[in-house]
Amino acid sequence: MPVCENQFKVENPFNFFYSIGTDPICSSNFTQTTTILQSGDAIQLSCTIVYGALRNTESIDAVMTWSINGQQIPADKATFRINSSPTEVTASSTLLINENFDATYKCGTTFSAPPVSDSMLASNAPDYFKTCTILRENLLLQY
Questions:
Q1: How far apart are CA 95 and CA 27, in angstroms?
Q2: Lower CB count within 10 Å: N or C terminus of the chain?
Q3: What is the pLDDT along the chain (143 residues), one digit of tens a residue?
Q4: In a domain, 119, yes or no
Q5: Within a 10 A sphere around the Cβ of 79, how many other Cβ atoms?
Q6: What is the CATH number of the domain that holds 102?
Q7: Does residue 120 form part of some domain?
Q8: Using the 8-state DSSP alphabet, how is residue 11 labeled?
């Protein structure tokens, strides 16, 4: 998994949010075959981001949203999970689709502001928004 440095704007240098990790990565469980997907088939789309954070402090969590051809998909259609260690967080959102295979799906990732409980910690959300895309060409016939 590639590692990159992300730069975040924060109001307080004591925010305990590490600026290392990955931008969101989109994937699917679709393995291309010689047949075209049909209505009723199901594919799982995933969006995952890894970032550093001290989870024993006020957390800054990833917020992930999905869209299809530019139209927002309701949040309750996706499953969101966070797995964390004391210094690293893996956040993932999974969307199960059984139609619209010829569409373009995007996962947008931002971060929440931490709950304010200590004036020594940052109270703003990081200035971050990245997307990853699953193109319809990846869900169709392989030549």
A1: 11
A2: C
A3: 333 333 333 343 444 444 567 899 999 887 665 557 776 788 899 999 998 876 655 678 899 999 999 999 999 999 999 998 888 889 999 999 988 888 999 999 999 888 776 667 777 888 899 999 998 755 543 32
A4: no
A5: 12
A6: 2.60.40.10
A7: no
A8: S
Write out the two tokens for 71.
């139209």
DSSP state of 86: S
Cα dist. 20→49, 84, 141 in Å? Answer: 11, 15, 37
Could you tell me the residue range of the domain that residue 68 belongs to?
4-31+40-114+125-138
Half-sphere exposure of 127 (CA within 13 A, CB side): 5
Closest CA to 84 of 111, 62, 102, 117: 62
Q: Which residue carries 């990245």 as its tokens?
A: 130
| Residue 143 belongs to a domain | no
Asked whether residue 87 is domain-assigned, the answer is yes
Q: Which two tokens stand for residue 113?
A: 């502001």
Number of structural domains the chain divides into: 1
